[in-house]
Every structure is written in C-alpha cells, then in structure tokens.
Amino acid sequence: MQLRIPGPTPCPPEALQAQGKQMINHRGKEFGKLLNSITERMKKVFQTRKDVLLLTCSGTGGLEAAVVNTLSPEDRVLSTSVGVFGDRFAEIASQYGATVSYLGGEWGKPVDLEALKKALKADNGIKAVLTTHNETSTGITNDIKEISALAREFDKLLLVDSVSGLSCIDLPVDDWQCDVVITASQKGWMVPPGLAMVSMNEKAWQAYARAKMPRYYMDLGKAKDYLEKGQNPWTPTISLCYALDATMDLMLKEGLANIFARHARVAQIARDGVKSLGLSLFAQEDHASNTVTAVKVSGKVDALKLVNLLREEHGVVLAGGQKNLSGKIFRIGHLGMVHEEDIKEVLEALKEALPEAES
Ligand SMILES: *Cc1c(COP(=O)(O)O)cnc(C)c1O
Question: How far is CA 242 from its chain centroid?
Fold first, then answer.
C-alpha cells in the first residue's frame, strides 16, 4: 500500500523496530538521557534555542496546550483561519472562553496580509493571533515570516499551528520570532501518532505567567520543570520516544536543507503531474504546500469514488476533502518518508483510475 495521506505518514523500518523495544523506568537515568537527547535534536529541527516540550497527545492536544497555557478566558484573539485546521484552533480558544474574531479568508487562498494588518491596526484589544503555517485541508502554506512580523509590530502573541509543516517546510522559529509553535509526530516526523511538540519563547512564558485558562495535564510549566530532571510530568509514551529517537537520527543525517529541498521537489512533481492529467489545484499556486496537494476534480469525476478506486484497485491511499470540501477535492500527502518514485507511482495510479471514476 502507498499511504499518501497528510498523516499518519509511513514510518521508516528504523522507527518501527525501535518502538518494539522493552520498557524502561520513565523516572530513571536511561529515559532521562533519551528525553534530553530527543529534546536537543528537536530544537535543531525547530531551529530554536528556546524551549521545546514533548507532550503525549496528537496535534490537537498540542493546539489545546498552546491555548490554555498562554490565554485567559475573555481574552480577545484573532483567528486567521483559511481552512478546517484554522477553524479548529479558533474553536479550542473559544471553548476555553476566549472571544475569537475571524479575519475571514477564503479557503484555497493564503492569509491576506493586508487584511491582517488592517484588523490589528483597527483593534488594539486583541491579545493573540492564531495562525496555521500549513493548512492541510486546502493545501496552502502561509507567509509565517510576514504574519509574525505583523504580530510583533502590533505587540500580539503569535500561536502557530505547524503540525503538517515543521520538519518538512522551513520554519526558523527563532529567526521569525514565533512565540508558540505546535507540531506532531505522525506528520513530517515519521513517527506513529501520539506525540505533540510545542516550542515556547520568552514572550510565550510571560503570557504563561498571566494565563488563567484551566490546565492540568497540558501544563507546559510542569513539562518544563520535569524536563530539567530528564522527565515528563506524567508517564510518557516511551515506545514513541524510541521511534522519535530513531527518525531524528535519520532526519539530522539527511540535513534540514536537504529535507526541505526533497519536499519541494516531490511537491512540484505532484503539482505538475495532476495538472498534466487535466486536473487543477485547489490552492492558489504561489502558496501551494510542499507537504500536501489538494486537487479539484472536474464535473464528471466523483472525488469519493476516485479515492475508493485508488485504494481498492491500485493500492494507493489518498485523502478526500474535509467538511464542505468533501466530494469536491482529494488530497495527496507527500510529507515525511516520501521520494520522487512514490509520487510517480501515485500519479500512474491516478492516470488509470481517473477515467473509471467518471460517473
Ligand atoms: C493533522 C493536523 C492537526 C492535528 O490533528 P491530530 O489529528 O490531532 O494530530 C492540526 N493541524 C494541522 C494543520 C494538521 O495537519
């Protein structure tokens, strides 16, 4: 099977083997060494010297941690959502009592920087900006450098969902001064689902000190304190730590620049390939993502039928559209362990299945 959805992604054999190892004491020296070494290498991938904390949860748990550790009920936040995951981030903030206003972008387009500037200028009561680096539902990569510069210009805290971006697409967290950045194991990190990683800079910790939303399991202050002892506050998923240890070796051996370049090459092949089959991209092309390609189907082709056919007859697993994009688009995940040949195989299968999916 070619699993080409935007997470979970295929895991390299090194990760699968590593996660089968025997348990160790999570309060012992051996785990401490493992956690410290994982943390130091995660910082390299985040391109940060600040804190990176490892949480036991999927990406959404990481988003929730970012919200509850930096905000208070009644805080006003601005959501730049341009898709399903942007909406989810805003929904979490709203569930915990924040008042969310929306910039109102269009799905398939990136965040409108002019509109963002205007909104921030017009309203100085906003505490934080919630944004999505790579909107997996539409296949868009946003201009985080510019969004972050605007957040700083107006002195807002910036929370960045980079669950499907970081480790595949360049995101220099310190250089771009992103206050909180969230990612997760089952995307570009090539590890099974179950770990989220969250970076926090000084501005984020200052917000933490004032934040009043309820938190317990997701308390990042506890995570930081325990990390100093080489521990997690709670029992961690040791098996996934083994797997992450293995994939980070592979990643740092390949080198960040090479990883980013490989994702760019593979994505270009995906985009060129679907266009040559007469399909069109859902995302505005100058902001098309290097980790997921969202493809519009033409009138005659049923997207759900196509995804089913590819899975049942061709051994290729793609993702459909989410929410109101269901049936209208399909998505090719190309992140983590993916090479040119994988995408060429997907395109071959697509070429064969397309005529069969005409209803
Ligand atoms: C996958 C993903 C998430 C998190 O989803 P989980 O299923 O909770 O891991 C959040 N944001 C984006 C952009 C994603 O792609």
Answer: 21
| CB neighbour list of residue 257: distance below 8 Å, 6 or more residues apart | none
CA of 122 to the centre of ligand 1 (A): 31
* Residue given tokens 């963002």 in the structure block: 116
Residue 349 zone, left/alpha/beta (φ > 0; ψ -120 to 50; rest): alpha
Q: Which tens digit of pLDDT belongs to each residue from 72-113?
A: 999 999 999 999 999 999 999 999 999 999 999 999 999 999
SS3 of residue 315 by DSSP: coil
**Residue minimizing CA distance to atom 4 of ligand 1:** 59
Q: Under a CB-based contact definition with an 8 Å cutoff, are residues 198 and 65 in contact?
A: yes
Distance 110 CA to ligand 1 centre (A): 18
Q: Which atom of ligand 1 is nearest to the CA of 6?
A: 15
- Structural domains of the chain, ranges and CATH numbers in brackets: 13-253 (3.40.640.10), 255-357 (3.90.1150.10)
Atom of ligand 1 nearest to the CA of 164: 15
Q: Is the CB of 158 under 6 A from ligand 1?
A: no
The CA distance from 242 to 16, in Å, is: 9
- Residue-wise pLDDT for 282-296, tens only, equals 999 999 999 999 999
**Residue 354 in tokens:** 């397309």
User: How big is the CA angle at 191 (ends 186 and 196), to the nearest 5 degrees?
Assistant: 55
Give residue 355 CA to ligand 1 midpoint distance, Å.
32
Instruction: State the pLDDT at residue 247.
Output: 98
211: CA distance to ligand 1 center in Å? Answer: 24
pLDDT at 259 over 90: yes
Candidate from 58, 111, 132 with most ligand 1 atoms within 8 A of CB, to mutate: 58
Residue whose CA is closest, atom 6 of ligand 1?
Answer: 59
> pLDDT tens digits for 6-63?
999 999 999 999 999 999 999 999 999 999 999 999 999 999 999 999 999 999 999 9
